Amino acid sequence: MATAPRPRTSTREPEELGRRLADWLDVRLPGARVTNVSVPGSNGMSSETLLFDIEHPDTPLRACALRLAADPAAYTVFPTYDMPRQHRVMSLVAQHTDVPVPRVQWLEADPGPLGAPFFVMARAEGRVPPDVMPYTYEGNWLHAATDAERAALQEGSISLLARLHDQFPSKEAEFLLPDGDGTPLRRHVDAQRAYYSWVVGGLAPSPLIERAFARLEELWPQDEGPAVLNWGDARIGNVIYDGFTPVAVLDWEMAAYAPREVDLGWTVYLHRFFQDLTVGFGQPGLPDFLRREDLERRYAELTGHTPRDMEFHTLYAALRHGIVMLRIAYRQAHFGEVEVPADPDSLILHHAALAAMVQGTYW
């Protein structure tokens, strides 16, 4: 789908990681064997995942997944990777909700053993809607499903978000607030501004992203609503499904304390991102799946909270995603995979959609 090669995701060698992991585990479970070490084909461009099995008579944990902070040598997507924070979030979600999160086990904050902090969790079995090529494209299990099967997956997925927001005690999520002043939403946006400044430090800024920040101020909600625990990267590509039923919610590194609509806007827009790209490449995609109006309606039915100011929140999601896309593009340039064009806005795959949102013509 992209015009450039798939960006590299790591400079690490899985075999070497496996050897070092075995040495680390031997201290905790003497005599344990680490087997079947592999890197999933869907490994993302942020934190890395390593899959492995443990052979030892004294542990119920056999099939494992290891979440490793991004390789500092790989021009990281985010400036910091707080693995204890992710471990804490997942532990608390398991404690306070019925949202299915993998059972977390060991946390290693010392970067010495594997070169960066990491934690180990139980590995869930199932299937994940693909990102490359995206599930909106022909040729994958979700696209090939029936309308009824996709409707069941959509219902289960929006239920995850509703249950997380309703069941998790808001007070327990306050530790996720960024430093600064103002409301949770103001701090969240300020943190994104700081992230953008980091991304473009010493490089060409994006006029489009800066216009989007200005437009956010014009659309700022009069009533921001209560803050809750946000999953952060709330999309079906971060869920493992058994058939069409969610069995594991993954990737909590963007978890936040923010209004409900920050999560919901991300869910809505990240699907539209894939749908728009698919249509742009001449395929119909999945136009009746994960539609904004359906997600907002069903979320309101499940929670009693009617989503508000969604023009703001979908723009904010597209803006945040644009910053990430810009960072990934500059990362590709760093590794010599692409040339930086004269117009940095063209590095943002969804620049046309983001521009339309800024102008108020997208929806």
TrEMBL record:
InterPro entries: ACAD10_11_N, AGP_Transferase, Aminoglycoside_PTrfase, Kinase-like_dom_sf
Residue span, Aminoglycoside phosphotransferase domain: 82-276
SUPFAM superfamilies (UniProt xref): Protein kinase-like (PK-like)
Signal sequence residues: none
Superkingdom of origin: Bacteria
Entries under Gene3D superfamilies matching the protein: 3.90.1200.10, Phosphorylase Kinase, domain 1
PANTHER family listed in its UniProt record: AMINOGLYCOSIDE PHOSPHOTRANSFERASE DOMAIN-CONTAINING PROTEIN-RELATED, AMINOGLYCOSIDE PHOSPHOTRANSFERASE-RELATED-RELATED
Name this polypeptide is given: Phosphotransferase family protein
Organism field: Streptomyces virginiae (Streptomyces cinnamonensis)
